[in-house]
Amino acid sequence: MTQDVIKVTINNKDIQVPKGARLIEVCRDSGFDIPSFCYYSDLALQASCRMCLVRIEKMPKLQTSCTITCTDGMVVTTQSEEIEKAQRAMVEFLLANHPLDCPVCDRGGECELQEMAFDWGGLEERFTEKKNYYAERYLSPMVANDPQRCILCKRCTRVCDEWMGEDAIEAGGRGANTVIGTYGGWLDCSQCGNCIEVCPTGTLLDATYRHQARPWELAQTVSTCTYCSDGCQMSLGARGGELMRVVARDRYVNGLNGEFLCIKGRFGHPFVNHEARIRTPMIRYKKGGKLIPATWDDAIRHVASKLDSIANKHGRNSIGIVGSPRLTNEALYLLKKFATDLIGTDNYAVTDSVNLTPFFANLGAPLATHRDIRYAKTIVLIGGEPEELQPLTGKQIRQAVRNGGARLIIFNSVPIRLREQASQFIHIRPGAEEAAVLALAGGATDSLVSRKMGIETAELEKVRGTINETEGDLIIMFDGSLSAAAQSALAQLSYLLRADNRRVLFHPLPLYNNSIGALDMGMTNGAIDVTQMLDAAGRGIRAVCVAGSFLPEQLRGREESLAKLDFLMVQELFETDTTSFADVVLPAASFAEIDGTFTNNDGFVQRVRQSIPPVNQSKADWMITDQLARELGVEFGFGMSASAVFNEIAMQVPGYAGLRYPLLKDESKPVQVKHDIAVQRDISNELETVRTAVEQMDESPEKHNDTPDVGHELFKIRTLTDKVAQFHLLAAGNPRPESLNVSPLYQITLSDDLRAEAVVAGD
Amino acid sequence: MSIITDVIQSTKAIIQGMGVTLSYIPKRKWTVQYPEEPVTVQPRYRGQHLLHVDENGKEKCVACFLCAAACPSECIYIIAKDDPRSPAERTGVDERFAEVYNIDYGRCIFCGYCVEACPKDAITHGYNFELSVYNRADLLKTKTDLLITTQLQSKNYRVAFSDEDVDSEYKEV
């Protein structure tokens, strides 16, 4: 598509710009710096700060460049005495009510108002009137608020509305008394904290990092989030070996998520330095005995001798190797190598609840990146709940609909919150997601599918109509509720639905940060999966080495399995259900303490960088595997270098060919893995399987009619979020404390444990 | 050169030198008999730091880290903390205070930049100059050593009055 080019003259310099370009962006790109507070390229226009004033010829007054679209022959002046006078006056007005409490303000040092006042502020304040005073308060356990510092740029309200679709925060009051606030004074939202991130002053602040450090004291390391599969880039702020806070990467640099982070990414980090971290390797010398601290050498020697004797006695296949989808690619690759090359067992698996192998084996089109989602024309979402489980994807969908005019079609048994953005919400019966694939692939009559889904036939016709009208990107998203046959059929849909002016892309919604990476590393290719391995414990499987822990849902109903094993080794951060049966527990290092890579649901390989030295005696998971291999007599030869492991991954795993750490350095240009694109093939067998399954589907289940609560997944207490005291408050329904001026942590006691954690968190 | 000339010249030199020494005996003495008598320090002398408290006994420091940022030898270490209690119960004047405030006198160069940087006038240079210790680790002074309410003050100095001409005795030299 060719764009019309027009000519603009800025400060006597002729510049060619595409038609429709925004003046402020053009000026900045051409090297003319224009100050602004309220302008935010990804949000609706506001023009309230009036800092970006420019003189445009033939216009009567100074104009706000953030609201001007360039027109042909426009003559603009960005620097003159008149403009500077206006800008200086604006800063003076902004500071009229802004308190001079920079020393106690957590934003001090990274405050946009400070910078602006430095460049455009006067030395003396001419206003002698009393400033408006509002006491500092807490809006939620996560968000602290100091209303008097507000300059009313309304970035927070726009972010809350446009990105999160929540409208939880809004400006109230009139004139000089306008303040940013919430409905009812208490923030009852998904607590993403993006309002904190975009706030140019210290009005909205991270309550978990309140008054703890100053930004220039923190060593910032760019890394990848360890929670969901979106793989947001973030900046870890550490001081003296302690992870103090997490913020998003600079919005101008970060290609994937801009300044977006969700509650888990932003506030879920205190587990890293938590006192409950396993400190040393521990050995249980006798079944039913206690775990006794040991040295690394002793523990590794103990594991090696046990594995040796079990392999000799019961054969190599009696040893199971289990990885976690939270580990880095390096750790998973080495674990697979350890299992197949060294132990020689077929029994290796990942503790993921979803297996996407059939989907990737039949993949007919590339994975959609989050940028593709933002500019997609039609999005089909089958099952899943991205706003809770993959918040960045949820945000991109919302923006695609709101700012890009995309059409969103949702097949879901639950009226998820995202349906408010949907152009068509198809409320299906629980478990009928497969039928959606069948309907899209045309493998059965509409009457069968709609009867099983419990919907009108016309709905399906409307879906097909929407897809056929689509010009641009069609993105199909799905979660793990699909069967293997349905996944294979879905992966081939791109060939059926594509057209000359329509591209089909896929966006799977796995649950863990490295679910895709585990698949790429081949950890899912084992002979059995995790539940089968647990069922075979004590019979076929005698010893298991787990990096991470089994999921609670995998252990449910199999509580006895782990006790039946002759030997269980666990690499973990915390004591879990799995470690309570372990014969050897090895302290593993968290994502903040290691180098490595994660692969997200875009297929982007992104760097995880070491921010702090390993806590206590912990070691990176791949180093533990490496050391164990050495004890068993095999030298992998990676030394201490994660990049050496990655080099081998690049050689062995086809999609990663040619990748090196230096190529992954720039997070503004993430690198996508080249997943093999399968050629079009006949999928009638798969459709037949799906159709049989759909035909046998029960038509009796009632549909869920209640919209799930905000945060029903986000605030869930799991091993890692359990270590954040504030999460307990949120999980308990985010009760409003008596006083808003003191952190709710100090006021609300849910249990003794929580109190103890609250004290630790307050430190 | 004969030995006699040598003796004569040496004797001459000794007498000349002793003449200078003897000429000083009747003059005014400016050696201070420290520690028997106190040293006079000037009002703007930069001795050991003092952390001040306000009229209610609250610590003035709000742990803004500006002193640590200004310090050229990086000898100031602070851990800030949130104090959720009511203003009457608080340790400091604000809800933000320094839980830990350490100055490493093994590194401090007494330049006074921290004092200039302080927006709350919480840190100043005191007059204590007796900082020698037997153990290098003891050069690290903690908040107790620095707070004006708890710092041990030496009796071995007096501060000159502002109109007192302390410099004059040196000028005689």
Give a written overview of the molecule.
The complex is a heterodimer of chains A (763) and B (173). In chain A, α14 (446-453) packs across α15 (457-469). Chain A contains 27 helices and 28 strands. Chain A is globular, with a radius of gyration of 28 Å. In chain A, a hairpin with a 2-residue loop joins β1 (5-10) and β2. Chain A has 763 residues and is of the alpha/beta class. Mean pLDDT of chain A is 91; it is low at 756-763. Chain A folds into 4 domains: 5-94, Ubiquitin-like (UB roll); 102-273, Alpha-Beta Plaits (2-Layer Sandwich), CATH 3.30.70.20; 282-355 and 515-669, Rossmann fold; 358-508, Dimethylsulfoxide Reductase, domain 2, CATH 3.40.228.10. Chain B is α+β, with helices and mostly antiparallel strands. Chain B has a domain at 39-159: Alpha-Beta Plaits, CATH 3.30.70.3270. Chain B has 5 helices and 7 strands; from the N terminus they run αββαββαββαβα. In chain B, the strands form 3 sheets. Chain B has a 3-stranded antiparallel β-sheet with strand order 3-4-6. A two-stranded parallel ribbon of chain B has the order 1-7. The chains are: A alpha/beta (763), B alpha+beta (173).
What topology emerges from the helices and strands here?
The complex is a heterodimer of chains A (763) and B (173).
Chain A (H helix, E strand, L loop, with lengths): L4 E6 L2 E6 L4 H7 L23 E4 L6 E2 L9 E4 L3 H16 L15 H9 L16 E2 L4 E3 L9 H8 L6 E4 L6 E4 L11 H5 L5 E3 L12 E6 L8 E7 L2 E7 L14 H5 L14 E3 L6 E3 L2 H19 L4 E5 L5 H15 L4 E3 L6 H5 L8 H5 L3 E5 L3 H4 L1 H12 L4 E6 L11 E4 L5 H9 L4 H8 L3 H13 L2 E7 L5 H8 L1 H5 L4 E7 L6 H6 L9 H6 L7 E5 L4 H4 L5 H4 L2 E6 L11 E4 L8 E4 L4 E5 L12 H11 L10 H11 L18 E2 L11 H12 L29 H7 L12 H4 L4 H11 L1
Parallel strand pairs in A: 1-5, 16-17, 16-23, 18-19, 18-21, 19-20, 21-22, 23-24, 24-25
Antiparallel strand pairs in A: 1-2, 3-4, 3-5, 6-7, 7-10, 8-9, 11-12, 12-13, 14-15, 14-25, 26-27, 27-28
Chain B lengths: L2 H22 L14 E3 L7 E3 L14 H5 L5 E7 L13 E9 L8 H5 L5 E3 L14 E2 L1 H4 L10 E3 L8 H4 L2
Parallel strand pairs in B: 1-7
Antiparallel strand pairs in B: 2-5, 3-4, 4-6
